[in-house]
Amino acid sequence: MTESSNDQLNIRREFQEIAYMIVHHLKEPARTIRTGAELLLEHKQTLNHDTEGEAPSLEACADRILHGARRLDDIAASIAQYADDLANEDEPMEPTDTGALLRSVRQKLQPLIEKTGAGVTNGAMPKLRCQPARVSRLLEHLVRNAILYHREQTPAVHVSAEERSENWLFSVRDNGTGIDASELTRIFDPFRRLSSKGYKGLGMGLATSKRIVADHGGRIWAESKVGVGSIIFFTLSK
C-alpha cells in the first residue's frame, strides 16, 4: 500500500471515529430536549384532567429544553471549529510574525479577558515560516483554555518562545486548576474535555492544536500540577 493510500485510510478512520463520537454526543441534548417537551405535555394533561398529581412547572420544562438547545449549539460550534481547520490544511507556508498573531488573538479574546480580569503577557515572539491562520488558531485555543480553566484567583497567562538548534519551543503557562498526571497524554485526544467548568464544547481545541503542530513538523505536550497550573509546550520548525 502506498503512502498516499495509507494517508487516505487514516483520514477515513479519523472521520469515522469523529462521526461516531458526534452521534454519541448529540444523543444527550436530544434526549434532554425530548424530556422537556414530554414534561410540557404532562403539564398540559395534568391541568386538563385536574388530577391530584403536581404538574411540572413551565419554568422547569423550559430550562430543560434550553439546556439541551445550548448543548446543541456547543456541539455545532465545535464541529464548525474542526471544519474550519480542515479547510485551512493546505494554507501555504509563509514568513510570519508570531507576535502579530498573538496580538490579534488577544484582541479576539478581549471580551473573555475583560470578563475574567485575566492577565495575558508574552515574551519576545519569533518570526518563522508557518501557516499563519492555523498557528493563529493554535495560539487562540491554548490561550483561551489557559484563561477558562482557572481557579478562584484571577487568571494569569504567559506565552513565551525559546530558540533551539532546529526549532522554536513555545510555551503557554497558566495559574489554573491544573491537570491530573493521568490525563496529561489524553487531553489532546478528540472529545476529551479538560473539565465541565467554563468552556462546554466537545474538547476539540487541543485535538485541533495537536494536528496543527504535527502538520508543522512539531510536537505538543503538557506539564501540570493540580491546584498550581499548567504549561502547554509545542515546537515549530524555524
Head-to-tail CA distance between termini = 32 Å
- CATH class designation of the largest domain: Alpha Beta
CATH topology value of the largest domain: Heat Shock Protein 90
What overall geometry do the principal axes of the alpha carbons give? Answer: globular
Radius of gyration: 22 Å
Helix content: 40-55%
The overall number of domains is 2
**Class per helix and strand makeup:** alpha+beta
Kindly estimate the percentage of residues that lie in beta strands according to DSSP.
Answer: 15-25%
Q: Number of helical runs? A: 6
Which regions have little confidence, pLDDT < 50, spanning 5+ residues?
none
**Largest sheet report:** 5 strands, mixed
Strand order, biggest sheet? 2-4-5-7-6
Per CATH, the architecture of the largest domain is 2-Layer Sandwich
